Amino acid sequence: MNSVLYVVSTPIGNLDDISRRAVSVLESVDWVAAEDTRHSQRLLDQLGLRKRMISCHDHNENQRSAELVERMKNGEKGALISDAGTPLVSDPGYRLVRACQDAGVQVVPVPGASALLAALAAAGQPSDRFLFEGFIPSRGAPRQQAIERLATAEVTSIIYEAPHRVLSFLEAMREEVSPKREITLCRELTKQFETIRRGTVAELCEWVAGDSNQQRGELVLILSPAEQTAGWSDNDQALAKLLLAELPASRAAKILAAHTGMKRQAVYALLETMNH
């Protein structure tokens, strides 16, 4: 097949997780684009494959995309891989994919290993809906805002965190969530020292603080959903009617949110239905 870019998932640790299709595709292409060509070359060496490696990372992706698209339009077949797992998930690549689509080059996904899905599957947390947060900011107000946002998320949240920051993340999260809130730490998935442990945020914080080994390697954290907000009782509705008779809906919503524990936006939406 001409004019095609394969987006190929690669193992996150255990080489046996490479799919037969991925190996077949990598054998068939003319070149392989990767964020770190030295790292990815080791994977190809293990698979016994000799391919031209082309760097494609955050700093050169725009320029590189035009070059690679031109190659594919001239009949070459290429593969995009990440250092580990599924490309584009907290990794470069979407600009190249868009450039291919805009140029009429077919983009073919070759699914496989993914750290976030592997962690979610083993976390013991609700998985019907989830938020993938990726790497949160490393410091300052943006980091605190991300922690506060995660603390109120009513769906399971998946977070990537650097090992040297995992303890500070857990300490900060402990200050923001209820004592019952759970988190699962998944470390070094599919590797020799794979660790999966679930507990309350406070329990995991104490465990990580007491074991420096848990502050090493690749980490995925799975935070359980925040407890659903309190219901809208008959007494709440009666109070709402009294407040609406005297106050604007926005002011009434703020008071009722403090009274019920519900989010102000949710209360405001209920008040709007009462006004119609």
Question: Can you walk through the features of this model?
Answer:
There is one protein chain. With 276 residues, the protein is of the alpha/beta class. 44% of the residues lie in helices and 18% in strands. It is built from eleven helices and ten strands. It has helices at residues 20-28, 37-47, 61-73, 94-103, 115-122, 140-152, 166-176, 201-210, 234-246, 249-260, 264-274; strands spanning 4-8, 31-34, 52-55, 77-81, 106-110, 130-135, 156-160, 182-187, 195-200, 219-223. A five-stranded parallel sheet has the order 3-2-4-1-5, with helices on both faces. α6 (140-152) links the parallel β6 (130-135) and β7. α3 (61-73) packs parallel to α4 (94-103) and α10 crosses α11. The longest helix is centred in the N-terminal third of the chain and has 13 residues, at 61-73. The mean pLDDT is 92.
SSE layout and pairing:
Elements: E1 4-8, H1 20-28, E2 31-34, H2 37-47, E3 52-55, H3 61-73, E4 77-81, H4 94-103, E5 106-110, H5 115-122, E6 130-135, H6 140-152, E7 156-160, H7 166-176, E8 182-187, E9 195-200, H8 201-210, E10 219-223, H9 234-246, H10 249-260, H11 264-274
Parallel strand pairs: 1-4, 1-5, 2-3, 2-4, 6-7
Antiparallel strand pairs: 7-10, 8-9, 8-10
